[in-house]
Specification:
Number of domains: 1
Strand order of the largest sheet: 1-4-5-8-9-10-11
CATH class: Alpha Beta
Shape: globular
Radius of gyration: 20 Å
Helix content: 40-55%
Distance between the termini: 55 Å
């Protein structure tokens, strides 16, 4: 099986980075303000996104069209002074390339036509030919060029465990009954699937880096549904494998790696040992405690409750201040130290008023500058 990615695009073909605040914070270097970007920042809460999706005809029509994917990635940056862009795509493109038949009905979540639920189905799995994901890499290169150095571009994938959840369940799940049944009754099959997923995710993220992504993020969205012990064996171990295979740099420039486990606060001490630059935190984690535990070795990303965005702007600003103050004054001066990247504790809701996002971004920048005495 050919898993070779498209040829790398040299960094010299892109405009120099004008706002490197996010990258510096990832690398635990001092910044003038705390950088902010939002999970799902290009999405249904924006009327311009809904209009573009209507033109595309479907979610996959949007995600697989280079021009549309570029357009929607840049839409939130036209509204807000965000410090990073994130590729518009979906975490499930890898299993789709494995032949599982991904689709999205309007108003519903993802669904696979061919879920993986028995030994024969697992035996058919293989790391996909990266050429089947060329539309993603073309989008990365197109977006990087369209950004013209304004802010860095983040690429991403689902974690091996999160992909396995969707692959076995066939869709989202409330109880994870099918995937946990396989995990407990046939752990050998689960490990086989996770090994393939880990190799596929690593190849996929490396291809995004070669196409122009300046940081990459692993979304372990469903790691937190696992029992203690199972998390370490079936999620953390395979995220570790992905990180071990990732490129550390491209054209001599460091590529930060971010790991986000929703519900992972219980295992922060173990996650502090991961070979990555940034740990993402959901809203259940106390930032001061997380900084004391892992802030000496990782930048922290997060972690305001997305539902704060339904409050009024004054209340949003107050909650932003509370989150920033919980982390405390970040590293200032030379060398490396404890740094923070502001984000939501999970993805933005489609019902969020766009003007409330403006209030959040403004509050992050102004309060974090005041923390630094600016």
């Amino acid at each position: 099986m050919n898993v070779t990615a498209p040829s790398p695009t040299p960094a010299s073909s892109y405009a120099p980075l004008q706002n490197d605040t996010f990258i510096r914070a990832c690398l635990r270097q001092a910044t003038e303000h705390t950088p902010v970007w939002l999970m799902r920042q290009a999405g249904r809460y924006l009327p311009e996104y809904r209009a573009t999706r209507a033109r595309a005809g479907s979610f996959m029509g949007l995600a697989t069209n280079t021009d549309y994917a570029t357009e929607v990635t840049l839409q939130p940056l036209e509204r807000y002074p965000l410090d990073a862009a994130i590729l518009f795509s979906d975490i499930l493109t890898v299993p789709d390339a494995m032949g599982l038949g991904l689709s999205f009905a309007l108003g519903e979540g993802p669904r696979f036509a061919h879920p993986v639920r028995d030994e024969a189905a697992v035996a058919q799995l293989a790391v996909p030919d990266m050429d089947r994901l060329r539309y993603v890499f073309d989008a990365v290169t197109s977006i990087r060029r369209a950004l013209n150095g304004r802010v860095p571009l983040i690429g991403f994938s689902g974690s091996p465990w999160t992909l396995a959840c969707y692959m076995v369940e066939g869709a989202g799940s409330d109880d994870y009954r099918l995937v946990k049944t396989m995990l407990y009754s046939r752990p050998d099959l689960m490990h086989r699937m996770l090994q393939i997923n880990a190799d596929a995710v690593a190849a996929y993220l490396n291809a995004q880096i070669e196409a122009g992504a300046q940081a990459v993020m692993i979304f372990d969205s469903w790691g937190g549904v696992l029992a203690d012990g199972a998390f370490q064996q079936f999620s953390l171990a395979y995220t570790t494998q992905v990180l071990a295979q990732l490129k550390r740099s491209q054209d001599g420039i460091t590529i930060p790696r971010i790991v986000f486990t929703k519900g992972g606060g219980l295992w922060l001490q173990a996650m502090a040992e991961l070979d990555c630059e940034v740990l993402g935190l959901d809203w259940s984690v106390n930032l001061a405690q997380a900084r004391a535990l892992v802030g000496h070795s990782k930048a922290l990303q997060g972690n305001i409750d997305p539902n704060v965005l339904f409050a009024q702007p004054a209340q949003i600003a107050s909650e932003v201040g509370r989150v920033l103050d919980s982390f405390g004054t970040p590293h200032m001066g030379a060398g490396r130290g404890a740094t923070h990247i502001f984000n939501l504790g999970h993805g933005i809701s489609q019902h969020t008023p766009p003007e409330h996002v403006a209030a959040l971004v403004q509050a992050v920048h102004s309060h974090s500058r005041s923390q630094r005495g600016a």
